[in-house]
Protein backbone atom coordinates (compact mmCIF):
# COMPACT_ATOMS: atom_id res chain seq x y z
CA UNK A 1 0.00 0.00 0.00
CA UNK A 2 1.40 3.36 -1.03
CA UNK A 3 1.96 5.88 1.75
CA UNK A 4 2.68 9.55 1.26
CA UNK A 5 6.30 10.62 1.68
CA UNK A 6 5.41 14.22 2.41
CA UNK A 7 3.83 16.30 5.15
CA UNK A 8 1.73 18.86 3.29
CA UNK A 9 2.26 21.98 5.34
CA UNK A 10 -0.30 23.82 3.23
CA UNK A 11 -2.94 21.20 3.90
CA UNK A 12 -3.93 22.28 7.41
CA UNK A 13 -4.96 25.80 8.33
CA UNK A 14 -3.99 27.18 11.73
CA UNK A 15 -7.49 28.66 11.87
CA UNK A 16 -10.44 28.34 9.49
CA UNK A 17 -10.22 30.81 6.64
CA UNK A 18 -13.37 32.73 5.75
CA UNK A 19 -13.23 34.90 2.63
CA UNK A 20 -16.71 36.15 1.59
CA UNK A 21 -17.36 37.15 -2.00
CA UNK A 22 -21.17 37.46 -1.84
CA UNK A 23 -23.98 37.69 0.68
CA UNK A 24 -24.99 34.10 1.43
CA UNK A 25 -28.61 34.94 2.25
CA UNK A 26 -29.01 36.70 -1.09
CA UNK A 27 -27.41 33.82 -2.97
CA UNK A 28 -29.86 31.45 -1.28
CA UNK A 29 -32.78 33.70 -2.21
CA UNK A 30 -31.72 33.70 -5.85
CA UNK A 31 -31.30 29.93 -5.82
CA UNK A 32 -34.78 29.41 -4.36
CA UNK A 33 -36.17 31.65 -7.10
CA UNK A 34 -34.33 29.62 -9.72
CA UNK A 35 -35.78 26.34 -8.47
CA UNK A 36 -39.26 27.87 -8.27
CA UNK A 37 -39.05 29.08 -11.87
CA UNK A 38 -38.11 25.61 -13.10
CA UNK A 39 -40.75 23.95 -10.89
CA UNK A 40 -43.43 26.19 -12.40
CA UNK A 41 -42.83 24.58 -15.80
CA UNK A 42 -42.18 21.06 -14.55
CA UNK A 43 -43.58 18.10 -16.45
CA UNK A 44 -44.50 15.33 -14.00
CA UNK A 45 -44.69 12.47 -16.52
CA UNK A 46 -41.57 10.83 -14.98
CA UNK A 47 -41.26 12.83 -11.76
CA UNK A 48 -40.95 10.37 -8.85
CA UNK A 49 -43.67 9.75 -6.28
CA UNK A 50 -41.50 7.97 -3.72
CA UNK A 51 -37.93 8.89 -4.58
CA UNK A 52 -36.29 12.12 -3.40
CA UNK A 53 -35.84 14.70 -6.16
CA UNK A 54 -35.54 18.46 -6.34
CA UNK A 55 -38.68 20.45 -7.08
CA UNK A 56 -36.79 21.81 -10.08
CA UNK A 57 -33.25 21.81 -11.43
CA UNK A 58 -30.47 19.26 -11.61
CA UNK A 59 -29.41 17.14 -8.63
CA UNK A 60 -26.58 14.69 -8.04
CA UNK A 61 -24.74 13.27 -4.99
CA UNK A 62 -26.56 12.80 -1.67
CA UNK A 63 -24.76 14.80 1.04
CA UNK A 64 -24.83 15.37 4.77
CA UNK A 65 -26.97 12.33 5.63
CA UNK A 66 -27.77 12.30 9.34
CA UNK A 67 -30.39 11.90 12.04
CA UNK A 68 -30.67 14.79 14.50
CA UNK A 69 -33.27 15.96 16.99
CA UNK A 70 -35.81 13.38 15.85
CA UNK A 71 -35.54 14.03 12.11
CA UNK A 72 -33.77 12.40 9.20
CA UNK A 73 -31.89 14.84 6.96
CA UNK A 74 -30.90 14.34 3.35
CA UNK A 75 -28.97 17.03 1.52
CA UNK A 76 -28.00 16.77 -2.13
CA UNK A 77 -25.99 18.51 -4.80
CA UNK A 78 -28.23 20.95 -6.62
CA UNK A 79 -27.95 23.21 -9.65
CA UNK A 80 -30.95 25.50 -9.15
CA UNK A 81 -30.72 27.35 -12.46
CA UNK A 82 -30.89 24.53 -14.99
CA UNK A 83 -31.43 20.85 -15.64
CA UNK A 84 -27.81 20.05 -16.40
CA UNK A 85 -24.81 20.06 -14.08
CA UNK A 86 -23.75 23.57 -13.04
CA UNK A 87 -22.52 25.56 -10.01
CA UNK A 88 -23.32 23.31 -7.08
CA UNK A 89 -25.53 24.26 -4.15
CA UNK A 90 -26.93 22.04 -1.37
CA UNK A 91 -30.63 21.16 -1.50
CA UNK A 92 -32.29 19.75 1.62
CA UNK A 93 -35.24 17.57 2.64
CA UNK A 94 -36.10 16.13 6.06
CA UNK A 95 -38.44 13.54 7.54
CA UNK A 96 -39.57 12.29 10.95
CA UNK A 97 -39.87 8.69 9.71
CA UNK A 98 -38.09 8.28 6.33
CA UNK A 99 -41.57 8.06 4.76
CA UNK A 100 -43.03 11.56 4.82
CA UNK A 101 -40.58 14.17 3.57
CA UNK A 102 -40.75 17.94 3.46
CA UNK A 103 -38.68 20.42 1.51
CA UNK A 104 -36.36 22.58 3.54
CA UNK A 105 -34.70 25.83 2.45
CA UNK A 106 -31.65 25.44 0.24
CA UNK A 107 -28.79 25.03 2.71
CA UNK A 108 -25.68 26.29 0.90
CA UNK A 109 -24.85 28.46 -2.08
CA UNK A 110 -21.41 29.61 -3.26
CA UNK A 111 -20.59 32.73 -1.24
CA UNK A 112 -16.92 32.35 -0.20
CA UNK A 113 -13.81 32.67 -2.32
CA UNK A 114 -12.84 29.06 -1.52
CA UNK A 115 -16.16 27.82 -3.00
CA UNK A 116 -16.57 30.43 -5.72
CA UNK A 117 -17.59 27.87 -8.35
CA UNK A 118 -19.44 25.32 -6.25
CA UNK A 119 -20.31 23.95 -2.83
CA UNK A 120 -19.33 20.34 -3.52
CA UNK A 121 -20.16 17.08 -1.71
CA UNK A 122 -19.55 16.26 1.93
CA UNK A 123 -20.90 14.60 5.05
CA UNK A 124 -22.49 15.39 8.40
CA UNK A 125 -21.62 14.03 11.82
CA UNK A 126 -22.98 14.61 15.31
CA UNK A 127 -20.04 16.11 17.15
CA UNK A 128 -18.74 15.94 20.69
CA UNK A 129 -21.08 18.82 21.54
CA UNK A 130 -24.11 16.77 20.47
CA UNK A 131 -24.84 18.97 17.46
CA UNK A 132 -24.25 18.52 13.71
CA UNK A 133 -21.00 19.44 12.00
CA UNK A 134 -21.14 19.72 8.22
CA UNK A 135 -17.99 19.10 6.18
CA UNK A 136 -17.91 19.78 2.45
CA UNK A 137 -15.60 20.67 -0.42
CA UNK A 138 -15.21 24.19 -1.70
CA UNK A 139 -14.60 24.23 -5.45
CA UNK A 140 -12.93 26.73 -7.76
CA UNK A 141 -11.74 26.39 -11.31
CA UNK A 142 -7.97 26.80 -11.28
CA UNK A 143 -8.09 29.16 -14.25
CA UNK A 144 -11.03 31.07 -12.79
CA UNK A 145 -13.54 30.20 -15.50
CA UNK A 146 -13.84 26.54 -16.56
CA UNK A 147 -12.46 23.00 -16.27
CA UNK A 148 -9.78 23.37 -18.93
CA UNK A 149 -7.28 24.37 -16.24
CA UNK A 150 -8.33 21.77 -13.66
CA UNK A 151 -9.85 22.02 -10.21
CA UNK A 152 -8.81 23.85 -7.06
CA UNK A 153 -10.57 22.18 -4.14
CA UNK A 154 -10.40 22.55 -0.35
CA UNK A 155 -12.30 21.18 2.67
CA UNK A 156 -14.79 23.41 4.45
CA UNK A 157 -16.84 23.44 7.67
CA UNK A 158 -20.34 24.74 8.48
CA UNK A 159 -22.60 24.57 11.56
CA UNK A 160 -26.41 24.80 11.79
CA UNK A 161 -27.91 27.84 13.47
CA UNK A 162 -31.00 25.98 14.72
CA UNK A 163 -32.07 22.46 15.63
CA UNK A 164 -34.28 22.27 12.51
CA UNK A 165 -31.14 22.80 10.40
CA UNK A 166 -32.82 25.42 8.22
CA UNK A 167 -29.96 27.95 8.29
CA UNK A 168 -26.22 27.50 8.64
CA UNK A 169 -23.12 29.50 9.43
CA UNK A 170 -20.07 28.73 7.33
CA UNK A 171 -16.89 28.39 9.37
CA UNK A 172 -14.65 28.55 6.31
CA UNK A 173 -11.75 26.49 4.97
CA UNK A 174 -10.19 23.97 7.36
CA UNK A 175 -7.94 22.00 4.95
CA UNK A 176 -6.19 23.69 2.04
CA UNK A 177 -5.14 21.85 -1.09
CA UNK A 178 -1.47 20.87 -1.48
CA UNK A 179 -1.53 21.62 -5.19
CA UNK A 180 1.99 20.31 -5.79
CA UNK A 181 1.00 16.83 -4.53
CA UNK A 182 -2.26 16.23 -6.40
CA UNK A 183 -3.69 16.21 -9.89
CA UNK A 184 -6.53 18.68 -9.26
CA UNK A 185 -9.07 16.31 -7.58
CA UNK A 186 -9.27 16.73 -3.77
CA UNK A 187 -12.83 16.38 -2.49
CA UNK A 188 -15.83 14.79 -0.74
CA UNK A 189 -14.93 14.51 2.98
CA UNK A 190 -16.30 11.67 5.12
CA UNK A 191 -15.85 12.15 8.89
CA UNK A 192 -16.15 9.67 11.77
CA UNK A 193 -14.83 9.04 15.26
CA UNK A 194 -12.87 6.01 16.44
CA UNK A 195 -11.81 6.03 20.09
CA UNK A 196 -10.98 9.58 21.12
CA UNK A 197 -9.90 10.69 17.65
CA UNK A 198 -11.86 12.22 14.80
CA UNK A 199 -10.93 11.06 11.31
CA UNK A 200 -11.59 12.52 7.88
CA UNK A 201 -11.00 10.82 4.55
CA UNK A 202 -11.64 12.18 1.08
CA UNK A 203 -10.87 11.33 -2.52
CA UNK A 204 -7.66 12.44 -4.21
CA UNK A 205 -6.04 12.10 -7.60
CA UNK A 206 -2.32 11.98 -6.81
CA UNK A 207 0.31 13.75 -8.87
CA UNK A 208 0.94 10.33 -10.46
CA UNK A 209 -2.79 10.28 -11.46
CA UNK A 210 -3.65 7.48 -9.04
CA UNK A 211 -6.98 7.28 -7.22
CA UNK A 212 -6.38 7.55 -3.49
CA UNK A 213 -8.15 8.26 -0.19
CA UNK A 214 -6.22 10.44 2.24
CA UNK A 215 -6.63 10.34 6.01
CA UNK A 216 -6.60 13.31 8.40
CA UNK A 217 -7.09 13.40 12.17
CA UNK A 218 -8.35 15.97 14.68
CA UNK A 219 -8.93 16.35 18.41
CA UNK A 220 -11.34 19.29 18.14
CA UNK A 221 -13.07 18.71 14.77
CA UNK A 222 -11.74 22.04 13.48
CA UNK A 223 -7.96 21.71 13.23
CA UNK A 224 -6.93 18.76 11.09
CA UNK A 225 -3.56 17.11 10.44
CA UNK A 226 -2.55 14.87 7.58
CA UNK A 227 -1.81 11.31 8.72
CA UNK A 228 -1.37 9.06 5.68
CA UNK A 229 -2.77 7.68 2.47
CA UNK A 230 -5.56 5.42 3.70
CA UNK A 231 -5.93 3.54 0.41
CA UNK A 232 -4.70 3.61 -3.18
CA UNK A 233 -6.72 1.84 -5.83
CA UNK A 234 -4.70 -1.02 -7.35
CA UNK A 235 -5.95 -0.33 -10.89
CA UNK A 236 -3.66 2.25 -12.55
CA UNK A 237 -6.54 3.29 -14.83
CA UNK A 238 -8.48 4.56 -11.82
CA UNK A 239 -7.42 8.18 -11.39
CA UNK A 240 -9.92 9.38 -8.77
CA UNK A 241 -12.07 7.94 -5.96
CA UNK A 242 -15.12 10.17 -5.61
CA UNK A 243 -17.53 10.22 -2.66
CA UNK A 244 -15.49 7.90 -0.42
CA UNK A 245 -17.06 6.05 2.49
CA UNK A 246 -15.49 4.17 5.39
CA UNK A 247 -17.23 2.38 8.25
CA UNK A 248 -17.01 -0.68 10.51
CA UNK A 249 -19.39 -3.64 10.36
CA UNK A 250 -19.71 -6.87 12.32
CA UNK A 251 -19.61 -10.32 10.70
CA UNK A 252 -21.65 -13.33 11.83
CA UNK A 253 -19.06 -14.17 14.50
CA UNK A 254 -19.18 -10.64 15.89
CA UNK A 255 -15.75 -9.70 14.58
CA UNK A 256 -15.20 -6.21 13.25
CA UNK A 257 -14.53 -5.63 9.56
CA UNK A 258 -14.14 -2.34 7.75
CA UNK A 259 -15.88 -1.40 4.52
CA UNK A 260 -14.24 1.07 2.18
CA UNK A 261 -16.52 2.52 -0.46
CA UNK A 262 -15.79 4.81 -3.38
CA UNK A 263 -16.96 5.83 -6.83
CA UNK A 264 -14.08 4.91 -9.10
CA UNK A 265 -13.33 7.10 -12.09
CA UNK A 266 -11.40 5.52 -14.96
CA UNK A 267 -12.06 1.79 -14.50
CA UNK A 268 -12.56 -0.02 -17.79
CA UNK A 269 -15.53 -2.33 -18.44
CA UNK A 270 -14.92 -6.06 -18.08
CA UNK A 271 -17.74 -8.52 -18.64
CA UNK A 272 -20.65 -7.48 -16.44
CA UNK A 273 -18.42 -5.25 -14.29
CA UNK A 274 -17.94 -1.49 -14.63
CA UNK A 275 -20.44 -1.08 -17.46
CA UNK A 276 -21.39 2.46 -16.45
CA UNK A 277 -19.34 5.56 -17.20
CA UNK A 278 -18.08 5.50 -13.60
CA UNK A 279 -18.88 2.83 -11.03
CA UNK A 280 -19.55 2.83 -7.29
CA UNK A 281 -18.49 -0.09 -5.15
CA UNK A 282 -16.64 -1.31 -2.09
CA UNK A 283 -14.09 -3.66 -0.59
CA UNK A 284 -14.23 -5.40 2.79
CA UNK A 285 -11.05 -5.55 4.85
CA UNK A 286 -9.22 -4.57 8.01
CA UNK A 287 -8.14 -1.25 9.48
CA UNK A 288 -6.58 -0.10 12.71
CA UNK A 289 -5.87 3.53 13.60
CA UNK A 290 -2.42 4.52 12.44
CA UNK A 291 -2.45 2.04 9.56
CA UNK A 292 -3.62 1.85 5.97
CA UNK A 293 -6.74 -0.06 5.01
CA UNK A 294 -5.98 -3.65 3.99
CA UNK A 295 -8.56 -5.09 1.57
CA UNK A 296 -9.59 -8.73 1.97
CA UNK A 297 -12.03 -8.89 -0.95
CA UNK A 298 -12.11 -7.81 -4.54
CA UNK A 299 -13.94 -4.66 -5.65
CA UNK A 300 -17.69 -5.27 -5.69
CA UNK A 301 -20.44 -3.06 -7.05
CA UNK A 302 -22.93 -1.57 -4.64
CA UNK A 303 -25.54 -1.69 -7.40
CA UNK A 304 -25.59 -3.49 -10.75
CA UNK A 305 -28.11 -1.29 -12.57
CA UNK A 306 -27.67 1.36 -15.24
CA UNK A 307 -27.92 4.47 -13.07
CA UNK A 308 -26.28 4.24 -9.66
CA UNK A 309 -23.45 6.44 -8.40
CA UNK A 310 -22.02 8.48 -5.52
CA UNK A 311 -23.68 6.71 -2.57
CA UNK A 312 -23.16 7.91 0.97
CA UNK A 313 -23.85 6.03 4.19
CA UNK A 314 -24.21 7.07 7.82
CA UNK A 315 -24.74 5.35 11.16
CA UNK A 316 -27.91 6.04 13.15
CA UNK A 317 -30.15 4.06 15.47
CA UNK A 318 -27.75 1.11 15.30
CA UNK A 319 -27.99 0.89 11.52
CA UNK A 320 -25.71 1.74 8.60
CA UNK A 321 -28.00 3.47 6.08
CA UNK A 322 -27.03 4.34 2.52
CA UNK A 323 -28.57 6.56 -0.14
CA UNK A 324 -27.28 6.75 -3.71
CA UNK A 325 -27.77 9.02 -6.69
CA UNK A 326 -29.47 7.64 -9.78
CA UNK A 327 -27.08 9.20 -12.26
CA UNK A 328 -28.26 9.78 -15.84
CA UNK A 329 -24.88 8.80 -17.25
CA UNK A 330 -25.60 8.67 -20.97
CA UNK A 331 -27.54 10.91 -23.35
CA UNK A 332 -30.29 11.21 -24.36
CA UNK A 333 -31.57 12.32 -20.96
CA UNK A 334 -35.21 13.20 -21.65
CA UNK A 335 -36.09 14.47 -18.15
CA UNK A 336 -33.76 17.44 -18.82
CA UNK A 337 -36.65 18.78 -20.89
CA UNK A 338 -39.06 18.63 -17.94
CA UNK A 339 -37.70 21.27 -15.53
CA UNK A 340 -35.92 18.75 -13.29
CA UNK A 341 -33.23 16.09 -13.64
CA UNK A 342 -32.15 13.29 -11.34
CA UNK A 343 -33.37 11.57 -8.20
CA UNK A 344 -31.94 9.61 -5.30
CA UNK A 345 -32.42 5.93 -4.50
CA UNK A 346 -34.47 4.53 -1.66
CA UNK A 347 -32.65 4.49 1.68
CA UNK A 348 -30.95 1.09 2.11
CA UNK A 349 -29.67 -0.63 5.22
CA UNK A 350 -26.23 -2.25 4.91
CA UNK A 351 -25.72 -5.53 6.77
CA UNK A 352 -23.32 -8.46 6.52
CA UNK A 353 -24.74 -11.95 5.97
CA UNK A 354 -23.50 -15.30 7.26
CA UNK A 355 -21.27 -15.69 4.19
CA UNK A 356 -19.46 -12.44 4.94
CA UNK A 357 -21.09 -10.63 2.02
CA UNK A 358 -22.73 -7.23 2.27
CA UNK A 359 -26.48 -7.02 1.80
CA UNK A 360 -28.29 -3.78 0.91
CA UNK A 361 -32.07 -3.82 1.27
CA UNK A 362 -34.61 -1.01 1.58
CA UNK A 363 -34.92 0.22 5.15
CA UNK A 364 -37.76 -1.41 7.06
CA UNK A 365 -39.65 1.90 7.09
CA UNK A 366 -40.40 1.52 3.38
CA UNK A 367 -43.12 -1.00 4.19
CA UNK A 368 -45.03 1.90 5.70
CA UNK A 369 -45.58 3.36 2.22
CA UNK A 370 -47.86 0.48 1.26
CA UNK A 371 -51.34 1.86 0.65
CA UNK A 372 -52.94 -1.34 -0.64
CA UNK A 373 -51.93 -4.97 -1.17
CA UNK A 374 -53.15 -7.67 -3.54
CA UNK A 375 -51.90 -11.24 -3.13
CA UNK A 376 -52.01 -13.15 -6.40
CA UNK A 377 -50.64 -16.36 -4.89
CA UNK A 378 -48.80 -19.08 -6.83
CA UNK A 379 -48.99 -18.68 -10.61
CA UNK A 380 -48.02 -20.71 -13.65
CA UNK A 381 -47.01 -19.10 -16.93
CA UNK A 382 -47.19 -21.13 -20.10
CA UNK A 383 -44.64 -21.16 -22.86
CA UNK A 384 -44.08 -17.65 -24.26
CA UNK A 385 -46.90 -16.22 -22.17
CA UNK A 386 -47.32 -12.59 -21.19
CA UNK A 387 -50.06 -11.95 -18.65
CA UNK A 388 -51.00 -8.43 -17.60
CA UNK A 389 -51.39 -8.21 -13.82
CA UNK A 390 -51.73 -4.42 -13.50
CA UNK A 391 -53.58 -2.38 -16.12
CA UNK A 392 -52.25 0.96 -14.86
CA UNK A 393 -49.59 1.06 -12.17
CA UNK A 394 -50.54 4.56 -11.03
CA UNK A 395 -46.88 5.50 -10.95
CA UNK A 396 -46.02 3.79 -7.68
CA UNK A 397 -45.94 0.02 -7.19
CA UNK A 398 -43.91 -2.50 -5.20
CA UNK A 399 -43.85 -6.10 -6.43
CA UNK A 400 -42.72 -9.09 -4.41
CA UNK A 401 -42.29 -12.30 -6.35
CA UNK A 402 -40.63 -15.67 -5.87
CA UNK A 403 -39.63 -17.73 -8.93
CA UNK A 404 -39.33 -21.50 -8.55
CA UNK A 405 -36.17 -22.12 -10.55
CA UNK A 406 -36.55 -25.91 -10.32
CA UNK A 407 -39.98 -25.74 -12.00
CA UNK A 408 -39.08 -23.02 -14.49
CA UNK A 409 -37.56 -23.91 -17.85
CA UNK A 410 -38.13 -20.55 -19.55
CA UNK A 411 -35.01 -18.87 -20.88
CA UNK A 412 -36.35 -15.64 -19.38
CA UNK A 413 -39.01 -15.19 -16.70
CA UNK A 414 -40.12 -12.16 -14.77
CA UNK A 415 -41.73 -8.78 -15.38
CA UNK A 416 -42.37 -6.23 -18.05
CA UNK A 417 -42.90 -2.86 -16.35
CA UNK A 418 -43.95 0.47 -17.83
CA UNK A 419 -45.82 -1.39 -20.58
CA UNK A 420 -47.64 1.13 -22.78
CA UNK A 421 -50.10 0.83 -25.63
CA UNK A 422 -47.42 1.47 -28.25
CA UNK A 423 -45.64 -1.77 -27.28
CA UNK A 424 -42.78 -0.32 -25.23
CA UNK A 425 -41.66 -1.68 -21.87
CA UNK A 426 -38.67 -2.35 -19.62
CA UNK A 427 -37.90 -5.98 -18.77
CA UNK A 428 -36.94 -7.13 -15.26
CA UNK A 429 -36.28 -10.84 -15.70
CA UNK A 430 -34.26 -13.84 -14.67
CA UNK A 431 -32.15 -15.03 -17.61
CA UNK A 432 -31.35 -18.74 -17.35
CA UNK A 433 -28.63 -18.66 -20.01
CA UNK A 434 -26.71 -15.95 -18.20
CA UNK A 435 -27.63 -17.13 -14.72
CA UNK A 436 -28.54 -13.66 -13.53
CA UNK A 437 -31.22 -11.03 -13.07
CA UNK A 438 -31.44 -8.51 -15.89
CA UNK A 439 -32.85 -5.04 -16.38
CA UNK A 440 -33.20 -4.84 -20.15
CA UNK A 441 -34.13 -1.52 -21.79
CA UNK A 442 -33.87 -2.60 -25.42
CA UNK A 443 -37.57 -1.79 -25.86
CA UNK A 444 -37.78 1.29 -23.65
CA UNK A 445 -39.68 4.23 -25.13
CA UNK A 446 -37.28 7.07 -24.26
CA UNK A 447 -33.71 7.62 -23.17
CA UNK A 448 -30.67 5.38 -23.09
CA UNK A 449 -31.05 1.64 -23.70
CA UNK A 450 -28.84 -1.40 -23.09
CA UNK A 451 -29.09 -4.00 -20.34
CA UNK A 452 -27.46 -4.69 -16.99
CA UNK A 453 -26.91 -8.03 -15.24
CA UNK A 454 -26.71 -9.06 -11.59
CA UNK A 455 -25.00 -12.49 -11.87
CA UNK A 456 -26.21 -14.98 -9.27
CA UNK A 457 -23.76 -17.02 -7.24
CA UNK A 458 -23.62 -20.80 -7.42
CA UNK A 459 -25.32 -20.94 -4.04
CA UNK A 460 -28.16 -18.69 -5.18
CA UNK A 461 -28.71 -20.79 -8.30
CA UNK A 462 -28.57 -24.03 -6.31
CA UNK A 463 -31.16 -22.81 -3.81
CA UNK A 464 -33.91 -23.39 -6.36
CA UNK A 465 -35.70 -20.13 -5.52
CA UNK A 466 -35.20 -16.58 -6.72
CA UNK A 467 -36.80 -13.75 -4.73
CA UNK A 468 -37.31 -10.34 -6.34
CA UNK A 469 -38.56 -7.12 -4.79
CA UNK A 470 -39.20 -4.54 -7.48
CA UNK A 471 -40.07 -0.87 -6.92
CA UNK A 472 -41.60 0.86 -9.95
CA UNK A 473 -41.82 4.67 -9.85
CA UNK A 474 -42.95 6.97 -12.65
CA UNK A 475 -39.55 7.09 -14.34
CA UNK A 476 -37.31 4.56 -12.64
CA UNK A 477 -37.13 1.06 -11.24
CA UNK A 478 -35.19 -0.45 -8.32
CA UNK A 479 -34.73 -4.23 -8.04
CA UNK A 480 -33.59 -6.08 -4.92
CA UNK A 481 -32.55 -9.70 -5.46
CA UNK A 482 -32.67 -12.36 -2.73
CA UNK A 483 -33.25 -9.97 0.12
CA UNK A 484 -30.65 -7.45 -1.05
CA UNK A 485 -27.72 -9.66 -2.03
CA UNK A 486 -27.95 -7.67 -5.27
CA UNK A 487 -29.47 -4.27 -5.99
CA UNK A 488 -30.17 -2.70 -9.38
CA UNK A 489 -31.24 0.89 -10.09
CA UNK A 490 -32.20 2.08 -13.56
CA UNK A 491 -34.16 4.88 -15.16
CA UNK A 492 -37.08 3.82 -17.34
CA UNK A 493 -38.96 6.55 -19.21
CA UNK A 494 -42.28 5.20 -20.53
CA UNK A 495 -44.53 6.59 -23.23
CA UNK A 496 -47.70 8.53 -22.55
CA UNK A 497 -50.82 6.71 -21.41
CA UNK A 498 -51.55 3.93 -18.90
CA UNK A 499 -48.52 1.96 -17.75
CA UNK A 500 -49.22 -1.72 -17.24
CA UNK A 501 -47.21 -4.46 -15.56
CA UNK A 502 -47.03 -7.93 -17.06
CA UNK A 503 -45.65 -11.34 -16.16
CA UNK A 504 -43.61 -12.97 -18.89
CA UNK A 505 -42.04 -16.30 -19.77
CA UNK A 506 -39.91 -16.62 -22.89
CA UNK A 507 -39.01 -19.87 -24.68
CA UNK A 508 -40.38 -22.04 -21.90
CA UNK A 509 -42.74 -22.02 -18.93
CA UNK A 510 -42.38 -20.52 -15.48
CA UNK A 511 -43.75 -21.13 -12.00
CA UNK A 512 -44.08 -18.45 -9.35
CA UNK A 513 -44.31 -19.58 -5.76
CA UNK A 514 -45.79 -16.23 -4.81
CA UNK A 515 -46.69 -12.85 -6.27
CA UNK A 516 -47.79 -9.86 -4.19
CA UNK A 517 -48.46 -6.33 -5.44
CA UNK A 518 -48.44 -3.21 -3.25
CA UNK A 519 -49.60 0.22 -4.30
CA UNK A 520 -47.39 2.87 -2.71
CA UNK A 521 -48.24 6.28 -1.32
CA UNK A 522 -46.35 9.44 -2.20
CA UNK A 523 -43.54 10.57 0.11
CA UNK A 524 -44.91 14.11 -0.17
CA UNK A 525 -42.43 15.75 -2.54
CA UNK A 526 -44.33 15.38 -5.82
From TrEMBL:
MF GO annotations: beta-fructofuranosidase activity
Keyword line: Glycosidase, Hydrolase
InterPro entries tied to this protein: ConA-like_dom_sf, GH32_Enzymes, Glyco_hydro_32, Glyco_hydro_32_C, Glyco_hydro_32_N, Glyco_hydro_beta-prop_sf
Family annotation (SMART domains): Glyco_32
Entry-linked Gene3D superfamilies: Exo-inulinase, domain 1, Glycosyl hydrolase domain, family 43
UniProt keyword Repressor, yes or no: no
Segments forming domain Glycosyl hydrolase family 32 N-terminal: 51-362
GO biological process: carbohydrate metabolic process
First-level EC class: hydrolase
One Pfam family linked to the record: Glyco_hydro_32N
Top-level taxon: Bacteria
Domain Glycosyl hydrolase family 32 C-terminal: residue ranges: 392-518
Listed EC numbers: 3.2.1.26
UniProt similarity note: Belongs to the glycosyl hydrolase 32 family.
Name of the molecule in the record: beta-fructofuranosidase
Amino acid sequence: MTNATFTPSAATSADPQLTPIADHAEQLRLAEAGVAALAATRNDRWYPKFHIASNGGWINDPNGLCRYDGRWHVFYQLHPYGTQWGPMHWGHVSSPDMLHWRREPIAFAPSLEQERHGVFSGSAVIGDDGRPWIYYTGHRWANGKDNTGGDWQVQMLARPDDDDMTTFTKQGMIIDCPTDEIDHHFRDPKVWKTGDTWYMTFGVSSKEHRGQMWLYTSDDMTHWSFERVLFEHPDPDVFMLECPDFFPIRDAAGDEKWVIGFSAMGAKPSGFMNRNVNNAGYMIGAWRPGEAFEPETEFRLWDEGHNFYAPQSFHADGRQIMVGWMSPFVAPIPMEEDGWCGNLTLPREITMDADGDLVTAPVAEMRGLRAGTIGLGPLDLGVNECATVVEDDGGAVEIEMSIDLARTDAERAGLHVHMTGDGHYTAVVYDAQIGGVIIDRQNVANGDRGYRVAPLSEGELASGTLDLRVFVDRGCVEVYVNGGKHAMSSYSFPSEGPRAIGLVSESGAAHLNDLTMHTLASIGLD
